[in-house]
Structure formats: structure tokens, C-alpha cells
Specification:
3-stranded antiparallel β-sheet; 13 strands; 383 residues; 4-stranded mixed β-sheet; single chain; 9 helices
Length: 383
Amino acid sequence: MINIQMKPKLLFSLILVPFLQQCKSEKKDNVQVAEKVVTVKEVQKPKQDLVVIKEKPAGITTPEGMVWVPGGTINQGAVPQDKMAMSHEKPAHEVTVDGFFMDATEVTNAQFAKFVQATGYKTIAERAIDWEEMKKQLPEGTPKPHDSIMQPGSLTFKKTKSPVANLYDFSQWWRWTIGANWKKPNGPKSSIKGKDDYPVVHIAYEDAQAYCEWAGRRLPTEAEWERAAKGNHTNTVYFWGDDESKLSKMANSWEGQFPTTNTKIDGYERRAPVKSYPPNDFGLYDMAGNVWEWTSDWYNTRYYQEVFEANEQIKNPKGATTPFNERDPYAKEKVMKGGSFLCNASYCASYRISSRMATSLDSSLEHLGFRTVATVDMIEKSK
């Protein structure tokens, strides 16, 4: 856990303690929590035939930029052969989802710019910081940072000059950057000019929701996202199978020594334009790496275990009813999926299908974006 009394320039420790500590600390927790995870179900309750929308209904046109994800039943969570699986990805449990439409790519800078132009919307990273709201998510008595850094901004990544011995100390590569936002993703001197087809980043949950409302879409549930990512590879670690050697050809991740040297074997050091890598079976791009993607589910470290123990058929689950993080009881977080360009086997390897992380609703980062979905009912109502 980061000391919240640290230097003022590290304001990010007040905003994103829950997210930034989890990649590596969750690996550590995996050992500690493993004994609590049930691995064998009790007597299976009789299954009933569920009515599932598998194929796209006749008369429904696929919206531009989206693809149809067939409905079906999957085992949500880590597969047995996944040696990098973390405790909050276990135990795997069976879920069924109706078919739906999903954006073929992450929402791009160009798409988000159209939304902003039409609505005048300002993202959280562009707004004045509300200390009264922020401190509700912090331990009582947390001191207010100096006004000089309580200014609009977001979290950006910075490589270290030398190898890092302690990968638990994420303050070595993350920094709070005043002026960083979706239009200036690497800081006030950066720009998205000429990068219309890059995924939009520095998007907080509220920002993603606002875009969805404007576009007539919604964020995917975690179960929907995982169903979509799997494609026809229903029991593999990655969306292309179990062969990790294909990573550099299939996804934008950190190749080399994290966080010092990125060899860029995959072609990019940071974000890549959408469609830079092969799609999965359903025609979805960047379901591994590039940028993290919001889902609508609350993050609850107990949820997978509770679902598994309930031993019931689940259709179209919406995740935990309440948020809960054992490492930070003050946090109210949503689940993110897919990993990013910063994911490395030494750190979190979150380009795996079952990988899941959490971040607070008001958080925005250089490697966090989103994509949207639409159900058959949503399409029919929009006619």
C-alpha cells in the first residue's frame, strides 16, 4: 500500500491507489488467497434449457463499425492451464449471454471528438478537481494536497532510466501530469493530431457513460466482454489459443524489460492505431493489449467465489451488486478488461482473456479507454 503522505507531485497516489497497486500485488495476493478458493463444486443442480439469442435476428441490420457476437455459454474466468492467472480470476464459473453487437474496435479519438463537438462535453481529466468528492474515497484524515497540484490532469506513464528491483512500487513509472487528457494523452505538450484512428484514452467511467448515452449504446458487462474476446477459442489463455510466442504478432504489449526498455517487437512502444493487429474469430480488434477497456460491472473480490458456490445457472449476469476490494475498502471500482501496451509477463500479463482489473469511477489513465455494445432490444427501440 502506498503511503498517502508521499510527495505532492505524486497526487496520483490519492486518486488511483486501488488500480495501481493491483497488477503486482494481486500476484502476491494470489498465494495468500488461494486456500480460500473452492476448486470442486458440490452436487450440480439440474440444468434447465435456457432460451438464448445465438444468431442475429432477421431484419436487424448490424450498426456501422460493430460486429455480431453470437450468444452462448462460456466458462468465465481462468482456464486450468493459465499459469499467470490471479486469484480474482478464479474459480471459473459457467455463464450464458444473449448475442449482442460490439464495436469492432476501441472508441477512437475521431469518434470521441465527434461526441465532444456535438455536446460540448468535458471529461473528468479536463475539469477542476473536487477535493470534497475525492476525499470520500480516502481514509479519514487524509491531508489535502497543495493547491498548486490540485489542477486538472491525469496519470501518464514514464519509463525508468534503470532496471526496477521492486515492481510493487509503481510510483517509479506513473506520474500525475497536469494538463494530460484525451486531447493531450502524454501531457500538455502532446497532441492527437494525425491520430484519429488511435484509441481515445484518459477516459473515466463517467466519460464513457456519457459517450454511450449520446451514441445510443452501453458499456459491455464483464461476461459479455469475455464472451466476445474468446471467439471460438472457448478454453484457451489468449484469444488466439495458448501459444504465448505469438504475442508480439497478435497484441500491443510491453516487449522487453519493464519499465525500462521496450524492444517494440510488436511495432509500437505506446498506443497503436486500432486494427494494427489481427482480429479474433468474431472480427473484434485489440481484445488483448493496446488499452484497457471499461465494463459496467462492479469490481468485487468475492464475486467469482460467491457465484461459484451458488452453483446456479446464470444468464446475462451484470456482475456483483456492490463493489468491494479487500485491499481498499474505501474504493468503488468497476472492472476493466483486455490489458494494455504496458502489460508484461513480469508485471501482470493482462493480455490474457480472463484477466480483470479494477479502477475507481473518477480515474483516468494514459492506457484506459473503452468500447461499446448494443443489444437486439436497443437496436429495435432505436428504429
